[in-house]
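ERR on first pass: missing label on line 2. Operator R.T. fixed the label and resubmitted. Corrected input:
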Amino acid sequence: DAGVIQSPRHEVTEMGQEVTLRCKPISGHDYLFWYRQTMMRGLELLIYFNNNVPIDDSGMPEDRFSAKMPNASFSTLKIQPSEPRDSAVYFCASTQGVANTGELFFGEGSRLTVL
Amino acid sequence: AQSVTQLGSHVSVSEGALVLLRCNYSSSVPPYLFWYVQYPNQGLQLLLKYTSAATLVKGINGFEAEFKKSETSFHLTKPSAHMSDAAEYFCAVGRPGGAQKLVFGQGTRLTINP
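pass 2 clean. output:
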């Protein structure tokens, strides 16, 4: 089975532009997580979904960030407008909830640079 | 609340030497504990996990970790370092009862000297 697939792998944009990051979780996984990784703050959980429903978005930095999961095989993280401090690597991860032991399966990440 | 502290943001060892990466946790409930590894330009992948069974857990690539409740520790070890072990390692804590958001430590970058 393919792993978690993220796109784009790299994105360079200018301040003020809209950025959309995409994620396809592993088939059959019912939990999806968005993380952000920076040198200063490490790995931060932004939001997670269960069965396509957002469960906890307390980590979303501000209203400029939004995430959706329209179906079980697709999620987006949108930043509008983007700012230089949003530069980071954004990871999507998924897992199967039933009898779950907490293991997350990560994608390779989307490296965002906002100029 | 749960938290993880990784002692040492950078660890450097010689090839063939013992690897020891330290992790201490805080949890109000019996924890699940994890070590993840991140190679350059890749996502995190699971090395090993403790889920309340045996306290000594063996993982991939010759790594193991021991859960010590009295010390609230879950240190990662490998008897003999290999150049391919150079990576960033993350300790994480979770809780039983289904998929929960994991709390990650800040990471430890392991460098292997030839």
